[in-house]
Amino acid sequence: MLLHLQTWKDVEDYLRHSTGIVVPIGSTEQHGPTGLIGTDAICGEVIGRGVGEAAGAMVAPTVAVGMAQHHLAFAGSMTLRPTTLIAVIRDTVESLARHGFTRFYFVNGHGGNVATVTAAFSEIYAEASLHPAGNRPAVKCKLRNWYDASGVRAISRELFGAAEGSHATPSEVSLTWYAYPEAVRTAPLDPPIAPSGGFTDAADYRRNFPDGRIGSNPGLASVEAGKRLYETAVKELAEDYRAFVAAP
Length: 248
Ligand code: NI
Prior knowledge:
alpha/beta, Rossmann fold, 4-stranded parallel sheet, binds nickel (II) ion
């Protein structure tokens, strides 16, 4: 059930039996020589929509631009400053809470969002805690990274081992190829497994990781792997979503 394909009456009907909503969140940033700019947004969106189907949940529009300042030395990358992303998440939650949604399940595709999204949740809770009337009908938010699901980790280890890395991974590239088979492509990857390490700003990142990858060999990606990752992630997160909305 996609929010943007409902009418307001449909949403009122939904709220009579559930106050949960899935919010896909990702990023729009370079993903190495073979990965799509939209990789993280696509991953959050396809898993989030899959969870919505499996659990009968409403799914909000995808927050497609995240906190990705470190990728800005590569063409096509976009970022929201941390403060902007916090504002976007607060307004997203507050808009929907006004109608009666109380359980916000964020399905995330980008590691660089985690600190900022967590800070946004703290802002939302702080506002409720500081309000003179005390807690409103309790709004609860949860962040799940699809790539951290235990079944997903197991498949990544089995298929890609040390070539999984941490950016432009074969797992995330596989998932985007499963969603968009027309995007399958090859390109020279030298060395096959990219270097690992840390970074600060965009220039530092590009110096350390010249083709954009970190620790990964996305040359191992496949549509078949993407299908396994999709099915496993959706099953695990749909169960987790159901438990989240059922809890007091
Ligand atoms: Ni990514």
